[in-house]
């Protein structure tokens, strides 16, 4: 026969359940829904984990600290050993990713974070996570969990790399990519599939695109700043319009990619002649560089102010050019990346944009 577990409510302790000498919070995971941090009560002492509510911004290749501190109310006279765990939350239904686990001075990091993360040493009640050499895939939401015996509390930290969102189509044209192909297409252009938050911020900054594209959570959406008949109709307000989640393998759309700020240089190669695609690739190699990718050109336009009216080949076989200052004879009177699509690779109509890593 199983032993009977008796649970009592004691008067004068805010109605908290009492068992085996401990008080337990009656909110999920001890989190107070009215605050920005986790709280739990045990042995008459409350464990509080505090993380920032605002999103942290950084850039590709930088080092960053994700703040997380914990304390007790009332304060304890002597320190207690705790276990600290960090993991990255999933954005697209994949399993959550372990980042680091630490007990005292001992810690272990996991996967792509191995050798790039640590906890600060010497800080009292400090559980912050330091990450070096940020990568595109590091952007997202992280959970900081502090475990003290039977009690564990946690808080969220959101990290976003500064970057640019751009729509991308397959060379065969519109709506050719399933979700897995969309992921590969962005990776091939030095980018990742954009999140909804990144697309929404790009829409706030003026991104307007009528073709629907995959996002990181496998939903399909598109941003509209100017309502028009051929873009959902005049009766709909501007915004990010959604088709909702789609089948990752069967459905096909374009994709919205996200590329972070550059670590190198993108430039138009001054060359005496126009080039075929193969000649363009070789010309960049001879100049000690390589032909630029679409994500690199967008990042150079967005963050380095690259402005050029000359169309040039890119690594995917497309021809494009960046405009920061619209002017006559340089395409539409709006900033952006102009595209000539995917011309015949034997055409000698274009120059080339090269990328030289820093």
From TrEMBL:
It is found in: Secreted, Extracellular space, Extracellular matrix. It holds the Pfam family V-set. SMART domains: IG (SM00409), IGv (SM00406), LINK (SM00445). Residues 1-15 form the signal peptide. Residues 46-162 form the Ig-like domain. Keywords: Disulfide bond, Extracellular matrix, Hyaluronic acid, Immunoglobulin domain, Repeat, Secreted, Signal. InterPro entries: C-type_lectin-like/link_sf, CTDL_fold, Hyaluronan_bind_Proteoglycan, Ig-like_dom, Ig-like_dom_sf, Ig-like_fold, Ig_sub, Ig_V-set. PROSITE patterns: IG_LIKE, LINK_1, LINK_2. One of its GO terms (molecular function) is hyaluronic acid binding. This is Hyaluronan and proteoglycan link protein 3.
